[in-house]
Design brief:
about 375 residues; mainly alpha; Iron-containing redox enzyme
């Protein structure tokens, strides 16, 4: 494949930012204009925004951080009352102070979390990995023997990620984020884990899911792997399609997360991130998406074949063509021609059937 975007060539690049006033409006809108300050949705959105800015190593003006000062001052009391949210609260403190908020609140929170053993309440390795990473940023080393090996084992089963499974997709990508410390340290994944990222990227491409595809591309960057031009071109086109409007966000279904991921990716590529002029006060994000879902069309067409399903894409294209829109065919054909390891993805996605009726595992 030619024209692959090189991680090494771009790694030191710094993204361009919009005017200081734009960033002040953006952070103020998230801190005071979209959710009730301190509730779970507010913590999620603001932790994500601040994390992205930190991961991009941006210098955030004091005026942009000042809106968080009252919440930052009360974080330790919040933590004492809501220990179940300790990861999100610690994350907000870590990212704020990383971006220049004065104080050592994160260190004190980390010390309390360590002394009370709150990591012990976690039920899965991904949550433990996030806790370990945030605690390290807060100055608290956490020893979790075997964690990296278990995460690597999970990531190294590509067939897991060839079928729609939001939980598995989220865990794969965030394992990469935590192990690479959001791009702060080199990450050398085994070949099988690299294939998992490519397989998940093909699934996201077939779904035309820019949110998921953007995170896959960021994970590829953090793993030192090239970003396929096919995927990046789609995300560049989507980048220009976001609409940011003044007004209250009435529910959780707007496109803010797609927007954050898209700008995060552009920043990791050394391109402009958060360069818009944002409205003052509440804001909402929208993205016009195509009405068709190639992933759904392909799933339904393959299921209709019953025992005639095979792992071979050309054969299944011929068998399914009558049930597929031209767009669904074009998108899959593009992946076959330009996507990395599309055949490996399709070998599982097609769920080929053996003679006795059992579904054969993908190659």
């Amino acid at each position: 494949m030619t024209n692959i975007v090189s991680f090494a060539a771009r790694r030191a690049a710094r993204p361009a930012m919009g005017a200081t006033g734009g960033l002040v409006s953006l952070l103020s809108g998230f801190a005071t204009g979209r959710r009730r300050q301190g509730d779970a949705w507010w913590l999620k959105e603001n932790a994500e925004l601040l994390m992205v800015l930190s991961a991009l190593h941006h210098d955030v003006p004091e005026a942009a951080l000042a809106v968080y000062q009252p919440f930052h001052d009360g974080l330790e009391d919040q933590l004492a009352f809501h220990p179940q949210y300790y990861r999100m609260m610690l994350g907000v403190a870590v990212w704020l102070e990383d971006l220049g908020q004065p104080g050592d609140t994160a260190a004190r929170m980390g010390a309390r979390i360590a002394s009370e053993g709150w990591i012990g309440m976690e039920v899965n390795d991904l949550q433990r990995a996030e806790s370990r990473f945030l605690m390290a940023r807060a100055g608290q080393a956490v020893d979790l023997p075997g964690l990296d090996a278990r995460l690597t084992g999970f990531m190294s089963r590509p067939e897991t990620f060839a079928l729609p499974n939001p939980r598995a997709a989220y865990d794969l990508l965030h394992a990469v984020f935590y192990l690479s410390e959001y791009g702060r340290r080199p990450l050398h994944l085994p070949k099988a884990a690299q294939q998992s990222l490519h397989v998940l990227g093909n699934l996201a491409w077939l779904e035309q899911n820019g949110d998921l595809l953007g995170e896959v591309c960021i994970a590829l960057r953090y793993a030192g792997l090239p970003v396929p031009p096919l995927w990046l071109g789609h995300l560049h086109r989507e980048s220009a399609a976001f609409r940011i409007e003044a007004g209250v966000c009435e529910d959780s279904s707007d496109a803010y997360h797609n927007f954050l991921v898209n700008r995060w990716l552009m920043g990791t590529m050394g391109e402009t991130a958060f360069g818009e002029d944002y409205p003052v006060g509440p804001m909402r994000f929208s993205l016009v998406r195509p009405l068709i879902s190639p992933l759904r069309e392909w799933s339904q067409a393959l299921m209709a074949l019953g025992g005639r399903r095979e792992a071979d894409y050309p054969a299944m294209r011929r068998a399914c063509a009558g049930r597929l829109s031209p767009e669904a065919l074009e998108i899959a054909d593009g992946a076959m021609a330009e996507g990395p390891e599309f055949e490996a993805f399709f070998a599982t996605f097609a769920r080929p059937v053996l003679a006795h009726g059992a579904v054969r595992k993908g190659a």
